[in-house]
Structure formats: structure tokens, C-alpha cells
Design brief:
heterotrimer, A mainly beta (about 350), B mainly alpha (about 600), C alpha/beta (about 425), A: about 350 residues, mainly beta, 4-stranded antiparallel β-sheet, globular, C: about 425 residues, 8-stranded mixed β-sheet, 12 helices, 14 strands
């Protein structure tokens, strides 16, 4: 199978998308013109989504325990079933070349799959944690796989053999997400209580710890904690750690809180920007950085179905643009060419948005 | 016929004003020793129905019936209560608290042969009486629910004012059952409906229990399994008055009010027999009230999301009419039974809300008599309470004249006084009065008034209403704590419950401790200043138990004081002992 | 590496490392280590109740009636238990090892989605009305003549003010203990020494004797005296509330509030309490149902099992009815906040101990858990079952004058197959 390098990605995607027409001049990124280009359908709520590094496929987890793949340029007939987990998959990642798919399952296991197989079955299922595997992420050099789970551990696995290499213990409550720094030497993890840990991969030691307690709340009435990251990524330059989640929990059990995106200055290891929407009660479920200097976040409200896309400039209080979704978002990813967004929804739809003006047919 | 007779009575009442005005040396209409305001008209009209008016009084007739109902009554009967027993009892029943030591002494010293009647009149006319009935009816009607849509304070004020003006019972009930919460003036009356969230099942049951004395609970799902009289159609007949109504949030005020639809019938199915039934609105076995021929317009205001439905014909508004209608005997049986139980200590029907053919009244003639006369006197609550208080039955001693084996018989025959547990409010107020805490608080309020309004103070501080309201406000936090601890199941009842945490409140609680601290002229402070053990015992017993100590009690106090080196401690201890005694805990 | 994903390997996994070890541990735990109080409790022949109330509405899917892999099943897996054929949710691994001591009813239909009504139906065993709670009935009919503690003790943090005794005497009402705090006013005022307290109480006693001598309604004066007597006993038992749990107990039960409360519950049951209710809060999961059940059940599962073990090992379980219940269950359908809402139509409860057939499952729900499929049971049926298991004739009338009120709802009946 051909594995395109990242340089060829955007070209290949475009050709596939519009095979019949001659290449059109590209409309520039114009967030205000963001519009739906495709809606893939599923009859069970989706749990997450990712677009593979080749930009050919979009993958989504669903509450029926399966993972599904669609061709970005295709339609619903391209839907392919990945079956093997015995619980929800709420995090996905790929090998650098896009050949392998890694799935984090609430059945305590990590799945390793050939991403492009026509009849996929798992190459390997790793009993990875005691309790849910909440997150998987591949290292920049593609040799390591990080995961975290309900045993409060962060673990590092070898790719592709799936052997346990290292174990980082230190989180006192569930770590929700763990991601590699682009330099490949460090790993950041974020837990239920808003504790961020910086781990040295070489030594396996915890280097630093920072609290983002505002992304956690204790419900006095019900005596329970609510917090954690719903998405987490490093900026491409490695200067910022970007976390999606919630803040100002006023009633955990009814899900009353505000959506929040936090940017941590990685070098100084301090909070850089905190964005929240005071008028919107709900959760941020996905966040991506865009090279044109903004962030996109997707969210779901506490009540109703007014899912949102927010376009944020770092440091600014209000989004410079927002888009109302057809239902609650459960994640977010951006295509390698940075022109399209994929949003998995609670109503089972997987919506693809284009951040440019539509092409006029004339 | 009845109406005409009543008019006559009122006319006579006007003439007899002068003869019921209390002598100047009497205790005064305010129960705290300040000059008396003129008696309210209702008390006067009550007096009009005296033997002077040419017919036997209700009290005389009921006493006769009570005696006649039990063949060996004379052998069971306790004598008339002593003045000491009476003064405590009647203060508690009519004014909601024990008398102060001063009030007790004045009453005991009064030589007038009519002093009991005078005291009853005086108490019935006092603001304390309206407060007492506010407590009683609040508990009876709302059963200690926490207020949500109608503030407790508004409702309580409304009740208090209603009793101050001696609003007839049928009118009070009409106002409660007709209130929709829209009119601000009448909104407090809507509490019965609104603070039950207009839950039709709950309200149906409570209307049955509170206003008719029958508990239809089990009839909701099937004819009552063990009580033949309670039929499903009784339950659904009552709920049919209400089924079309609903809670509506006024879009402007955001307040909850009642709206009503013009259509909707009540059907029911028995879970036992699967038998189906249908009923018009009806009160128990009275005829159903069919809807009139529908008018052209069904609605004055058609229900919509922002419009409160007002039908041209309201079923809900028929409820009050049907309730107070002359043919609804249950309505007056219920209330006279409750007022009897309030004064006497045990209902003619017990439990108060479970009247049916297998649980008949113990003295049916008495119940009928009270009910008929109450109706004839225009549902005059104050009149009835006065008649009851003046009766020999009420005034009998609670000390048994027979040995304990026959105690139950005497009690069942109403041949002796009953023990009545103090209500939480009575217990709270009585504790504050007994320990002198209320007197000290009142003095402080007077001083504050003198400072704040030096000119108005002289008049204001003798105004009974100002005094009552001021003292009540100042002591409410203390009272609320007692009520929170002692109020159990809501609803009027005559049984008695006592829990460990109530006892702990008395044994170790900080409030009781505070009331007993000898300072600023409270009881323990006064006692400390009395050198003679005899005087001390006298003051102690009069203040707490409204009676003088017997010789052996004085001796016990003396030896207690002798045996304890720390006199202050000794005084606190014996004061506590009497305050926590059974004699204090009950009205007897 | 495992590739047999089609097979229910979780079963194998658990049976290997899980309950084999667990039951062995249970068997050797204690032997002849009864406290004198426990030995006395066993000897006395008194029957009692332990109620664990999971406040807010435990999800039946995430506990007793898992439906993994179905439309509404959620992400948790079912695990096998010590009783072959019975599977429960993986969130209760300790209970799974002790399933042979408990039974499950999976087919309770409470016909309400309201917290208060659901609670009342399950506590009173009636669809509506003023009836006494299970605890008050236990206090009335199971307590000894002069019980050393109030009959019905409720360890909770929040006040659910309710008329728990209804028409039974107030001495049968729940006495609420705020957490592990002693009841209020258990301490003598500082100004009063023991000698003074006794002295003044003696004066009081004499005054009461004199008053009782005048005759009339002895039931009133006796009830009044008994409330002071009960207060005195509670003051004497103050140490029950004050003693620090041992390090070993804390290690086993957990140092969290529920752990400490269950230790207190054990002490109270061992010292003559008739009904002890322990409330574990935090199940009203309208959002993040799974994360919250993960947290709450993690706390509940182990702690409850330590208490169950202690009751069993001391021999008290045979005379103690154990109930685990909520005011209802939770909706099959997940809402958009990963929450489950109120659901009274197919609820599960668990029970065990005195008079109950262990290791049984009564009733079932349909494949997706949306309704009862077999053997529908009501709150009234459970109520009959509880007291029949404790040896009380629930068709008899309550011991109150004036009205014939059957102890159990005449429209309901006991679950005979659960009665040992």
C-alpha cells in the first residue's frame, strides 16, 4: 500500500475529492465561511473521531463498542467496521505513516489495527490497564505509544510489538489524557483533579507538576469530583499545551459547568490563556490548533442540542467566530491540509466542515 | 328561620355590651397586665346566648349530655378543677402559654365568683389568642409543610388576622378553597393548594381529612379494604372538583397560580375488581353536581402557554359552596370535633380524621349538638371555644377521683380532665414565660421603644397588639429552635410522642442552659435574691407550675438547698428539674 | 497476546485472579475474634436490619443488572460472581466474590420517577400515604423491651426530614446521626458536673412520680419518661460515637466518610441497635453517569463488603437482614451529558442475611433493560418480604388503637421464593 508523505497529503486529498474537474484555485482559509461539506451517518452516538495522517480517512468510535472508518472524500457507503473492543473506544491515534490505528478501549485494552484494511480485525489487543484505557498517543518518532487509564497509571508501550516499556505512577486520580511533546523527550498528562504532570521519558521520572484546579470542581452536595481533560494536544511548535474541558462546576450531577480551553506555557510551565464561555453552559470536547494562529474548539451544551464550534485567538476573551452544530459535539479533528474539520456528534452524525468559502460552480 | 334567630341574637348583643365589660380591677384584656381594650364584638355576641337570653346555653346542654351518656358517670367524675389547675389550663388553651407568676397570683387572689368567665373573655379577646389559633390552624391545615410558593409569614399573618376578627369557619374555608393565588390580598389563602403543589391526589386526601374528617387514602385505588364506608367514588367525587385545575406560572410575576380547563371528567378503576366508575364532583354521599349546559363560550380566558385558563363554569369554585352547604353535615362534624379535641384533649371521634361507621363518635349526641349549634351560630369559632371553656366538662380536674383501673373509663366518659401534651409552640412559649426570659425580653423591647420613639412610647407600650407582635418577633429565633426539635408529624392530633433528641435538648441543650442562667431578672436570678426557702419554693412553683408548692415540696426544696453548697447551682438544678418535669410538659 | 476476542474472556480472567482468592480470604478472616458486644448480639436472638441507601438512584445497568453490548448498556462489562450464572457489573468486584451471601431482585417497578415518592414507596411499602418506614416498623416490633439504643438510627450527612414513624410512636422515628457525629446535645453542659446532673435528675424523678400519682393517661407520662431514659442511654453510649476506628478497620473500610460510617454502623448493630440505615450519597447522575458510578461504586463496593464480612464472621448475618436499595434506578437511554435520568420502571435491589435465600436472582428485565420482563415486584412486595424474612406476620394489623392498618400493603405480597 502506498503511504504518502505529509508533503503530498493535501494534493492527494484534493485529487480524490474532485476527480472529474480540473484543479481549481484554492479558496483561502476564511473561518467566517465555515460550512458543512459532508455528513456521515450512524445510528448510535459517536464517542470521538480522528482523521488519519494521510488525510484519506476519518475514524470514529461509537457507543456500540465499534470503531468506524469513512473515506473523507466518499459517502456513507465507504463506512467500514472495526470490531474487537468490548466497550467504548474514546481515543484514537495513528502511526506516523498512518498505517496503524491505535484504539483506547473502556474494556481495559488497547487495539492495534491496520488502518486501511478492507476487512479489519485487530492485529493485537493489549491488556493495558486495570479499568478504562482513556487515552493513547503515538510519539513523534513513531516508536512509542503512551496510554493512561483508570489504574491511575501512565504507560509507555513499544511500537509495533506492543510490549510494555515503562510505567509512570504519580497521579492520585484518573489521568484523562497523555500526550508526547513534539521534541519526543517529554510526556504531559492531565488528571481528574486538573493536575498536569510533565514526565521525562528517558528517566521515567516526574519532572514538574502544575495544577489547573479551575478545570475541576467538587460537588459538595453529592460529594463527587468532576473535571479532567476531554481533549489535549501540544501546539506544533511545542510551546503550548492545549487542554479542553470544563470550569466552574456548580452542579456536577446535572452537568452544570462552563466550557473551557486552557493553554499552558510549556517552557515556563504556567497558565498562559484561559478561555471560557460565560454564556454557554457545557463542555469542550475537542480542540485543535490551526497554523494560521487560531484554535478551534467543539462543544456540547448542558441542555438542548446546540453543539458549538468556537474559533479562538489566543488571549482573546470572545471567539472571533462560532458555528452552531446540528447536535452535541464529542470531539474534533482537523485534516492534514488544515482546511477541513471533522466533528463526531451525539446524534450519530459525523460532520465534515470546510473552513473556506464554498467553491462557486461558475 | 335560623337566620332570623341569629339576627335577634346580634341585636341583643349590642344592648348587653355594658354588662360584659370587665371591672377595672380585673386582669385586663391583654394577658400581660396592661389596661384592657374594649372587648371585640364577637365575644359579646357570644355572651348574648346566655341563660339571660331565655334558652339553655350550649355548655349546659353539652354537660348534661356528657353526664347522661355514661350511667355511672357520677361515680367516675372528678370534681371541678382547682383555680390553680384552671388558670394554667385556660391560659394554655386560649392564649398558648402558661400564665406568668403574677398573672397566676392575681387570678388566685380574685374573689369574684365570675372570675373564670372573666378570664376566659379576657383571653379570647387578646392578641395572644389569635396567635394561638394561628399556630393551631397552621398545623391543622398545612401540617408543618415548609412554605414554598406562599411565604409562611404571609399565611400566618392572614390566619392571625382572620382569627383576630373572628372570621366564621365557613368563610375561612370558602376563602381557602376558592383561592387561586391571583389576587394578592387573598394569595395567602391559596397556600393550602399552592404549597401542596396542586397535587390533586394529595389535596383530595387532605380535604377529606382536614375538612371532612375522613381519610380516603386507600379509596384512591380501590374501595377501602377494611372500612366499608370509604368508597372510590367518594375519593373521585372530591377530586373531580379539582381535576380540571392546574398550576400555572404567571409569565409576569413568575408566581404560581391556579388555572382551570373547561373540560375533563374523572374516571376510576378499582385495582381489586377492575370495576370502572365515573363521577361528577360531589362531597361524599351528597348528590353530584353536574356541569350546567355548556355556554356558547367555554372560556373567559382559554388556556395557552402564557395564558391562565379561566373557564366560564369553574368546577373548582363549586367546591367551597358544596363544602359549606347546609346538607354537608360532615363539614361541621369535623370542625366541632377538632375544636372539642383542642379544648378537651380527645376527640369525640378519634383519630380526628378517621370517622366511619366502624369508628363512630363516642358521644354522638354531643357531636350533633355542637355541630348544629355551631352552624346556628354562623360558624363562630370564638363563641364555640368560649362555650367549651365555660363548660363543666372542660373545667373538671384531671386528678382522678377513682383508682387507676377505672382511669380509662373516667377518661373515656369525659368524667375527668385529659392530659394534653403541650404543642411545640406552647412548650416553647411556656418555657420562655416560666424562666422569665420573656418578661426580661419584653422589658428590653420597651426600653428600646422608649429610646427610639420617646413620644409614641407611652401609648404604644400599652397597646396589646404592639406588645404581642413585638415580643413574638423578638423571641421567634428561640421559639423556632424549640419547634424544630419538638414538631414531629404535622396535623392536629391528640396523641403524645417523645423522642430521645427532644429529651437531650432539655437535658443538655444550650438554649435551656441560657434560660436558666441567673442574670438580668430571669427566674433563677429572682430566686437567688430570695433568702427564705419557703418564699423561694413558692416563687419557683408559681412561676413554672402555676401553683403553690405543697408542704412536702417546700420541704424538698429546702433540703435540696441545704444539701448543696453552691446555692446558684442548686437553684439552677431545681429550676431545671421542674422545667423538665411531666407536670410542665403537659396541660392538665 | 490474546486474540480470542469473541469469547467472554473477562469471565476467565476474573475467575482466575478474582474471587477464588477473595473467598479464601473471607473464610480465614476471623475466627473466635468476636467482640463481647458481637457475641452478646448473636446470643440475644434479636433480629435487626442493616439498610444501605444509595441516595440519588443507583443505575441498575452499572450494578445489579448489567446489559453489556446492548443499545443502552453503557461501557462497563459484566463479571461473573461466586454464584455460577449470576453476572453483575464490573464496578462491584468485591460483591461479586460474595454474591453467595446476597440475592438480587431485578424486576422492581416503582411506577414513579420522583425521588421522594420512590423513596417513600420503597421505605413504606405503600404507594402513598402516611405509613411507617421499614426502620420504624423494625423498631416497633423487633427491638428488645428496653433497647440500649434507639431502634432506628440513620447515619447520613443530609437531612431528609420525613415522618418516618407515621402513626407509630415517636420513639420509633429515625434518629438521625449526622455522619459519624454523635446526636446533638449528648454532652453535659460545662457548668454541670455528673453529681449535679444526677441530683437534679433525682429531683425531677420525684416530681414526676408525684405527678403520675394523680392518675390519668399513664401512657403519656411513661412515653415522656422513656424519652429521657433513652437520652440517658445515648449519653452513656457516647463512646460509640467517639471512639476512633482502629487502623485496621480504616485500612479495610477506607478512611472516606462512607468507610467510617460503615464502621459505626457495625458498632451500633453490635451494640443493640435494631435498624441501622447508612446513606451513601451521590448517585443522581444526570451527567457523567459512568465516571460518577466508577467513583461511587468503588467506594461502596469494598466498604460494604467489609461490613458484610464482619457481620458474617461474627455470626450476626444470620439474624441481620441486609438491604441495598435506592429510590429508583436510571434511564436506559443516555442523555447528551453521558447521564442517565430517573427511572422507576425497572429497578434492581439486593438483599441478604436473615431469612433470605442467598445467591438467588428474582425477576428479569428485557434484553435492553427498558422494562420488566418477568416477575414484576412492587415496593409493597419487598416490604412484605423483608419482614416475613424477619419473622413478622405482615398481614396482621399494626398495634394501634382506632384503625385497623395492616402492617404490609394488602394489595402486595411477599416474594416467597426469596424466603428461606
Amino acid at each position: 500500500m502506498k503511504t504518502p508523505t505529509s508533503d503530498t497529503l493535501s494534493t492527494s486529498t484534493q485529487t480524490v475529492q474532485r476527480p472529474a474537474s480540473p484543479p481549481l484555485p484554492e479558496n483561502p482559509i476564511d473561518v467566517s465561511q465555515t460550512h458543512v461539506v459532508t455528513e456521515f451517518k450512524h445510528d448510535i452516538p459517536l464517542t470521538t473521531c480522528r482523521i488519519d495522517p494521510t488525510g484519506r480517512f476519518v475514524f470514529a468510535g461509537a457507543e456500540d463498542f465499534h470503531v468506524y472508518r469513512w473515506a473523507l472524500s466518499g459517502d456513507d457507503s465507504s463506512k467500514t467496521l472495526f470490531t474487537g473492543h468490548q466497550s467504548w473506544v474514546r481515543c484514537l491515534d495513528f502511526s506516523c505513516d498512518g498505517r496503524l490505528l491505535f484504539t483506547a478501549g473502556y474494556d481495559h485494552r488497547i487495539g492495534i489495527w491496520n488502518a486501511a484494511d478492507e476487512n479489519p480485525s485487530p492485529i493485537q489487543m493489549i491488556d493495558a490497564h486495570q479499568g478504562w484505557v482513556r487515552w493513547v498517543r503515538v510519539s513523534p518518532d513513531g516508536k512509542l505509544l503512551a496510554s493512561c487509564g483508570n489504574d491511575n497509571l501512565v504507560r509507555i508501550w513499544s511500537v509495533p510489538d506492543g510490549k510494555l516499556r515503562q510505567e509512570f505512577a504519580g497521579h492520585k486520580r484518573y489521568p484523562y489524557a497523555a500526550v508526547f511533546h513534539p521534541d519526543g523527550k517529554r510526556l504531559a498528562s492531565f488528571d481528574l483533579m486538573g493536575v498536569i504532570k510533565d514526565w521525562d521519558i528517558e528517566t521515567g521520572k516526574e519532572v514538574r507538576s502544575l495544577e489547573a484546579k479551575f478545570m475541576w470542581g467538587f460537588d459538595q452536595k453529592f460529594r463527587a469530583d468532576m473535571g479532567g481533560a476531554r481533549d489535549m494536544r501540544f501546539s506544533e511548535d511545542g510551546k503550548a499545551l492545549i487542554v479542553a474541558g470544563l470550569t466552574e462546576v456548580s452542579n456536577a450531577f446535572a452537568g452544570v459547568h462552563k466550557p473551557m480551553v486552557l493553554c499552558v506555557d510549556w517552557e515556563k510551565f504556567e497558565h498562559l490563556h484561559k478561555w471560557k464561555d460565560d454564556a454557554y453552559k457545557g463542555m469542550v470536547w475537542g480542540v485543535c490548533e490551526h497554523p494560521e494562529g487560531f484554535l478551534v474548539a467543539s462543544g456540547a451544551p448542558q441542555g438542548g442540542n446546540k453543539g458549538m464550534l468556537w474559533f479562538l485567538k489566543p488571549g482573546e476573551e470572545k471567539p472571533f467566530h462560532s458555528v452552531t452544530l446540528s447536535h452535541c459535539a464529542r470531539g474534533l479533528d482537523v485534516t492534514p491540509d488544515k482546511r477541513q474539520l471533522a466533528v463526531p456528534q451525539f446524534d450519530g452524525k459525523l460532520c465534515i466542515y470546510q473552513m473556506t468559502a464554498p467553491h462557486s460552480l461558475s | 328561620m335560623l337566620t332570623r334567630r341569629f339576627t335577634t341574637i346580634v341585636a341583643i348583643a349590642g344592648l348587653s355590651l355594658a354588662c360584659v365589660r370587665l371591672p377595672d380591677n380585673a386582669l385586663g384584656a391583654n394577658i400581660e397586665n396592661v389596661p384592657a381594650p374594649p372587648l371585640l364584638a364577637e365575644s359579646v355576641s357570644a355572651v348574648a346566648a346566655s341563660p339571660d337570653a331565655g334558652e339553655p346555653t350550649l355548655r349546659a346542654r353539652l354537660d348534661e349530655l356528657v353526664v347522661a351518656a355514661t350511667p355511672n358517670f357520677a361515680s367516675l367524675a372528678s370534681p371541678r378543677s382547682s383555680d390553680e389547675e384552671f388558670v394554667r389550663r385556660v391560659y394554655l388553651d386560649l392564649a398558648g402559654t402558661i400564665p406568668t407568676g403574677t398573672q397566676t397570683r392575681e387570678f388566685l387572689a380574685n374573689q369574684s365568683p365570675k372570675k373564670r368567665e372573666q378570664l376566659i373573655n379576657q383571653l379570647l379577646a387578646s392578641p395572644q389568642h389569635a396567635r394561638r389559633l394561628q399556630y393551631v390552624f397552621d398545623e391543622m391545615l398545612m401540617e408543618r409543610r415548609v412554605g414554598t410558593d406562599v411565604p409562611d409569614a404571609d399565611w400566618q399573618r392572614w390566619l392571625r388576622e382572620s382569627f383576630r376578627e373572628n372570621k366564621p369557619w365557613d368563610q375561612l374555608v370558602t376563602e381557602i378553597l376558592s383561592a387561586d393565588g391571583v389576587d394578592e390580598q387573598q394569595r395567602p389563602a391559596a397556600k393550602f393548594f399552592l404549597d401542596r403543589k396542586f397535587d390533586v391526589d394529595l389535596i383530595t386526601r387532605d380535604i377529606g381529612r382536614v375538612f371532612l374528617g375522613v381519610d380516603l387514602e386507600c379509596a384512591q385505588c380501590h374501595d377501602h379494604p377494611s372500612i366499608d364506608d370509604y368508597l372510590q367514588r367518594h375519593y373521585y367525587g372530591l377530586s373531580a372538583f379539582l381535576k380540571r385545575s392546574y398550576l400555572f406560572t404567571d409569565p409576569k410575576t413568575k408566581k404560581k397560580v391556579l388555572g382551570e380547563k373547561a373540560e375533563g371528567d374523572v374516571k376510576f378503576t378499582s385495582v381489586f375488581t377492575a370495576e370502572e366508575g365515573q363521577t361528577d364532583p360531589r362531597v361524599l354521599d351528597l348528590p353530584g353536581i353536574p356541569d350546567p349546559e355548556p355556554a356558547k363560550e367555554l372560556y373567559i380566558a382559554k388556556p395557552a402557554s402564557k395564558v391562565r385558563g379561566v373557564p366560564a363554569y369553574s368546577r373548582r369554585l363549586q367546591l367551597a359552596k358544596a363544602m359549606i352547604a347546609a346538607d354537608n353535615v360532615d363539614f361541621r362534624h369535623n370542625i366541632v370535633n377538632r375544636l372539642w379535641a383542642l379544648m378537651i384533649g380527645r376527640g369525640l371521634v378519634e383519630p380526628l380524621d378517621i370517622r366511619h361507621s366502624d369508628n363512630p363518635p363516642s358521644h354522638p349526641e354531643v357531636l350533633d349538638l355542637l355541630a348544629d349549634e355551631f352552624q346556628r351560630h354562623n360558624y363562630n369559632v370564638r363563641w364555640l371555644l368560649r362555650e367549651l371553656a365555660l363548660s363543666e366538662t372542660y373545667q373538671r380536674s384531671s386528678r382522678l377521683a377513682v383508682d387507676s383501673e377505672q382511669g380509662g373509663d373516667a377518661s373515656a366518659a369525659f368524667a375527668c380532665g385529659h392530659l394534653k401534651p403541650l404543642s411545640p409552640e406552647q412548650f416553647g412559649w411556656s418555657s420562655l414565660v416560666a424562666t422569665g426570659f420573656s418578661t426580661v425580653t419584653m422589658s428590653a423591647q420597651e426600653a428600646a421603644l422608649l429610646k427610639a420613639e420617646p413620644e409614641a412610647a407611652a401609648n404604644k407600650k400599652v397597646d396589646p397588639l404592639w406588645r404581642e407582635e413585638t415580643l413574638h418577633k423578638a423571641l421567634k429565633p428561640e421559639l423556632d429552635l424549640v419547634v424544630a426539635r419538638f414538631a414531629g408529624q404535622g396535623g392536629q392530633k391528640t396523641g403524645f410522642d417523645a423522642t430521645a433528641d427532644q429529651a437531650l435538648f432539655v437535658i443538655n441543650g444550650a438554649n435551656v442552659e441560657k434560660w436558666l442562667k441567673p442574670q438580668g431578672g430571669v427566674l433563677t436570678d429572682r430566686l437567688l435574691k430570695l433568702d427564705s426557702p419557703e418564699l423561694l419554693a413558692e416563687e419557683l412553683y408559681i412561676s413554672i407550675l402555676s401553683r403553690s408548692p405543697a408542704e412536702d415540696e417546700t420541704a424538698a426544696v429546702t433540703s435540696y438547698l441545704d444539701s448543696v453548697s453552691d446555692r446558684t447551682m442548686a437553684i439552677r438544678e431545681i429550676t431545671w428539674a421542674l422545667l423538665s418535669s411531666a407536670e410542665f410538659r403537659f396541660n392538665h | 497476546m490474546r486474540r480470542d476476542i469473541g469469547c467472554n474472556h473477562i469471565d476467565h480472567q476474573l475467575s482466575r485472579r478474582g474471587f477464588v482468592a477473595g473467598s479464601a480470604a473471607g473464610a480465614v478472616a476471623i475466627g473466635g475474634l468476636l467482640t463481647p458486644a458481637q457475641a452478646e448480639a448473636v446470643k440475644s436472638g434479636q433480629k435487626r436490619i442493616l439498610q444501605v441507601f444509595l441516595q440519588g438512584g443507583l443505575s441498575q445497568f452499572e450494578s445489579w443488572d448489567p446489559k453489556p453490548g446492548t443499545r443502552y448498556g453503557g461501557p462497563f462489562r459484566a463479571i461473573p460472581t461466586s454464584v455460577p450464572g449470576i453476572h453483575i457489573c464490573e464496578l462491584m468486584p468485591h460483591i461479586a466474590q460474595r454474591m453467595h451471601r446476597l440475592s438480587i431482585v431485578r424486576s422492581l417497578d416503582l411506577k414513579t420517577n420522583d425521588h421522594r415518592i420512590g423513596r417513600l414507596r420503597i421505605e413504606k411499602g405503600r404507594t402513598a400515604g402516611d405509613f411507617p418506614y421499614v426502620g420504624a416498623v423494625a423498631s416497633k416490633y423487633l427491638a428488645a423491651e428496653n433497647p440500649p439504643l434507639p431502634g432506628y438510627l440513620h447515619i447520613t450527612t443530609r437531612g431528609l426530614e420525613d415522618n418516618t414513624n407515621a402513626f407509630l410512636g415517636a420513639q420509633h422515628a429515625q434518629l438521625k446521626l449526622l455522619g459519624v457525629n454523635a446526636p446533638e446535645n449528648l454532652d453535659r453542659p460545662a457548668s454541670l458536673d455528673e453529681e449535679s446532673a444526677q441530683r437534679r435528675n433525682e429531683f425531677r424523678r420525684l416530681a414526676n412520680e408525684r405527678f403520675a400519682g394523680r392518675g390519668g393517661q399513664p401512657a403519656f407520662t411513661e412515653a415522656f419518661d422513656s424519652s429521657f431514659e433513652m437520652a440517658r442511654r445515648l449519653m452513656k453510649r457516647k463512646s460509640l460515637f467517639e471512639q476512633e476506628p482502629s487502623a485496621k478497620d480504616i485500612e479495610r473500610y477506607g478512611s472516606h466518610p462512607f468507610g467510617v460510617r460503615c464502621i459505626l454502623a457495625r458498632e451500633l448493630l453490635s451494640n443493640g441497635a435494631t435498624c441501622v440505615k447508612v446513606t451513601h450519597h451521590g448517585y443522581d447522575t444526570h451527567a457523567e453517569n459512568f465516571n460518577f458510578h466508577l467513583e461511587q461504586l468503588d467506594e461502596f463496593d469494598k466498604t460494604f463488603c467489609m461490613l458484610l464480612d464482619d457481620l458474617h464472621d461474627s455470626g450476626m448475618l444470620e439474624s441481620t437482614l441486609v438491604l441495598i436499595y435506592s429510590e429508583f434506578g436510571r434511564t436506559p437511554k443516555l442523555n447528551q451529558r453521558y447521564g442517565r435520568d430517573h427511572w422507576g420502571a425497572s429497578v434492581s435491589v439486593a438483599l441478604g442475611g436473615c431469612g433470605i435465600v442467598p445467591g438467588a436472582v428474582v425477576g428479569s428485565t428485557n434484553a435492553e433493560g427498558t422494562e420488566v420482563a418477568e416477575r414484576e415486584v412492587s415496593g409493597g412486595d419487598l416490604f412484605h418480604t423483608y419482614f416475613r424474612a424477619l419473622g413478622l406476620d405482615t398481614s396482621a394489623n399494626h398495634d394501634i388503637p382506632g384503625r385497623p392498618v395492616p402492617i404490609g400493603d394488602p394489595a402486595a405480597s411477599p416474594i416467597e421464593e426469596l424466603l428461606a
